[in-house]
Amino acid sequence: MTTRIIDVHAHLGPWFFGPDQGSAADNLRSMDAHGIDIQLVSGVEAVTYDALSGNPALAAAISGHERLRGMFVIDPRFLDEAEAQLEELLPSGLFLGAKIHTDYAATPAGSPRMAAALRLCAARQLPVLVHSWGTQLLDLAETVAQVDDVQVIAGHMGGPAWRLAPEAARRTDRLWLEPGYSQPEADRIRWVLDRVGPERLLFGSDSTLIDPALAVGAFRAAGLDEHERDLIMHRNAELLFAL
């Protein structure tokens, strides 16, 4: 049986290293190849270089492509500018959530700046995908617990520190786990799933940086039953993003 797939962690635009795919058509071709129905994308320009120029560029790129939905990139160092741009772009309906990259924005997950950015998103009911790597996964969980009403997805689920995922999930019930990772270890997803339950996991590929085949294969290897597959591959995302 074919299951709907919503990819909550993807990008659009050429990278300054490696993958050079740059258009909505490139994303859509990759989605078709791997059975992905909807992708939530942040602009590579916005993540790696300049959010204020990259967010409008993403809006223009995905306009008219209903399968591509935007993630508004926030640099917590420039919250006033981000707030003003949110007021301008959110009415377009193109953006369903926000994206914060801790490294590119030089904002640790446990910092006051991160908490302020999450409060900005909570006030607008925007779910937030936050890059989490190493022990910052636990720092992120602590920050989420301190910010009322915010809903956060831990991108990469800590990367190499994925065994911390159950502890992070215990610290707050408003943290979801997205395990996209370029160097996955065997049984990683099943190990976390058995400890946190299928309601807390979401499918993400980190496309176009990583080919979606890696994430699709990792979830297939986890041996999901029908209930787990439906929740992880699309239902959790549908509820979180009101899709």
List the helices and strands and how they pair.
Layout: E1 6-12, H1 24-34, E2 38-43, H2 44-48, H3 51-62, E3 68-73, H4 79-89, E4 95-100, H5 112-123, E5 128-133, H6 136-146, E6 152-158, H7 165-171, E7 175-178, H8 188-196, H9 213-221, H10 226-241
Parallel strand pairs: 1-2, 2-3, 3-4, 4-5, 5-6, 6-7
Note down, in words, how this protein is organized.
- It is built from ten helices and seven strands.
- By secondary structure, the protein is of the alpha/beta class.
- A seven-stranded parallel sheet has the order 1-2-3-4-5-6-7.
- The chain is globular and about 45 Å long.
- The two termini are 22 Å apart.
What's a concise summary of this model?
The chain has 243 residues and is α/β, with parallel strands linked by helices. It is built from 10 helices and 7 strands.
Structural class: alpha/beta
Distance between the termini: 22 Å
Fraction of helical residues: 40-55%
- Number of strand elements: 7
The whole-number mean of residue pLDDT values reads 94
H-E order:
EHEHHEHEHEHEHEHHH
Radius of gyration: 16 Å
What is the overall number of helices?
A: 10
Rough shape?
globular
Q: What is the spatial order of strands in the main beta sheet?
A: 1-2-3-4-5-6-7
* Uncertain spans: none
- Profile the largest sheet: 7 strands, parallel
Strand content range: 15-25%
